[in-house]
Every structure is written in C-alpha cells, then in structure tokens.
Amino acid sequence: MIKVGIIGGSGYTAGELLRLLVHHPNVTLDFVYSTTNAGVSIYKQHTDLIGETNLKFTNTINPEVDVLFLCLGHGRSRSFLETNTFSKDTKVIDLGNDFRLNADHKFLDRDFVYGLPELQKEKIKTANNIANPGCFATAIQLGLLPLTAENKLKNPVHINATTGSTGAGVMPGGTTHFSWRDNNFSSYKVFTHQHLGEIEQSLKQVQNDFEAPLFFIPNRGNFSKGIYATMYTKYDGDVEEAKALYKKFYADAEFTVVSDEEIHLKQVVNTNKCILHISKKNGMLLITSVIDNLIKGASGQAIHNMNLMFGYKGKTGLELKASAF
C-alpha cells in the first residue's frame, strides 16, 4: 500500500484528490495537512465525503510518507519544501506551477519531471518528483502534440479555451462570485497566460524547430468544471491524414481518445479523459479538446502519475464515467 500525504487539503484540487484516493485500492491516506482547518473533520470542508472518511485535517506532517501531493497554489511549493524536510524516499507530486519549466526542474536535492503521461510516460515511471501540468496546458498540449510529432506545426496557432469557475481556486474573488459569473462570459490574460511557457516547452521538446507563435485567449465560463478548447492553424494535408496521425499518436494512451463525432464538455466532466475532435475547412485544421480541469487537468492526472511511478496500471483508481445529463 502507498502511504499518502496531502499538503493544502482544503482547496478544490485536494478535494478531488481525496474523493479519488479514498477509493484507490493501493492507497492509505496518512495525513491531510491544513493549518487553517487543523483538527476539523475533512468532510466538514469537503461535504460530499461524509461517510467516506473519518480522517481529520492536521497541522503536523509525517516525513516518511511514500508520496506527497502538494496542493498549495502557485508559487508556494518551493517555500514549503524549504521549511519541511521529507525522506529522500518520499516521492513528491506538485500540483502548482513551481517546477514545470526546465529551468526550475532542479530544486534542493530533487529533480522534477514534467508529468504529462501522453508525452513522458517512460520518464514518469522512473521519476521521484513530478511537476503536474496546468489544466489549460494539458488540454492544449494534447491538442497540438500529434502535429509536432510529425513536424507539421509550422504556422501560427490560434487558441480559444474556456474554463469553469473552479479553475480560479477555492478562495472567492471578484470574478468567481456567483452573481458576477452567472449569465456572464469574459476573457483574461489574453496572449500572456502563464501556461504558455510549459506548452511551448513541450512542443519544442517534440519538434525542435517549433517557432510558431501561439495566440491564446483564455475565457471564464459560467459553469463550475471543465475546459473546452479550440485550436486552429494552417494545414496542408487532408483531414483524414490529420485524423490518422492523431489516432496513431494516442493509440496507447490510457485516457486520451480521438472522436469521429463532434464533442462536448459533459463527455469528460468528472472523468480523467481528454477527448479530441479534428476537422478542416478553408485550409485550416481545427482541433477541439475537452477535459475536466480538476481531474484530467489536475488531481486525476496527478494520480495517473503516481500509478506510473509505483508500477500500477494507469487507470487504477481512475475508472470514472461522465454523466450523460
């Protein structure tokens, strides 16, 4: 059994981790760390977990756990690891953005591997520390990587992606308040979103001469979970050729599939799937990608990485199904 610790246990990603890990056949939850909720039953914060676990939040850690999930929010993982020492045998999976870029992979005595299984499955299997990808970055990379694998991503890429309100985290803010978000739609960080760095890094890893600009418009949707992303770029081949190369690239992928039918968000919400659809018109290849931002874009992908690191089948504890309604 894998002994698991979670740091930052009160947020949305930690909630999803807990919902999945309490039913994982190879996991024992050792502690869930939260300074603001120490001593409080976990189900008081994550109310759907009533009857699922009797564990309480704690403000102490066990430095000997087998794997540590960091759910601290962006920029806070480094300081936590600097001030808290864990066994050299403890594997770390960071769900923040602290270690995603190549320049940041080495920290203290830990080397972090970028944890996109569809790109780095073999590296993940032998890794001791994982930088879990961002949610937008996951949906967009999975939409573009097959083109780079065939050296076919040569032209500017236009990306429009909409995320649910949980993407902003559990702390309330002006753009997450229900009265503002409901019946509303807006863009933010246009062309400057922080996930662009890791997206470009992965595309260049596969296609060394990749230099095409990515014009990314992130949007806030008036729903709670999911990402619906569209990408289009000039493409010389025909659409059947494009579909074939996508299906070839993901032939062995455990969670990413290419659909011949048009896709929608409810197909993936509450699952660890990414579903892609490919079409072409007027010389432009359109790639549509849908994921659950908190599962495939965060906690589910983190557990997939854990499974690979410990030699379990990728789908262990992640055999989830979407609702048809």
UniProtKB/TrEMBL annotation:
It holds the Pfam family Semialdhyde_dhC_1. SMART domains: Semialdhyde_dh. Its main location: cytoplasm. Keywords: Amino-acid biosynthesis, Arginine biosynthesis, Cytoplasm, NADP, Oxidoreductase. GO terms for cellular component: cytoplasm. InterPro entries: AGPR (IPR050085), AGPR_AS (IPR023013), AGPR_dimerisation_dom (IPR058924), AGPR_type-1 (IPR000706), NAD(P)-bd_dom_sf (IPR036291), Semialdehyde_DH_NAD-bd (IPR000534). The active site is at residue 135. Transmembrane segments: none annotated. Belongs to the NAGSA dehydrogenase family. Type 1 subfamily. Catalyzes the NADPH-dependent reduction of N-acetyl-5-glutamyl phosphate to yield N-acetyl-L-glutamate 5-semialdehyde. This is N-acetyl-gamma-glutamyl-phosphate reductase. It comes from Aquimarina mytili.
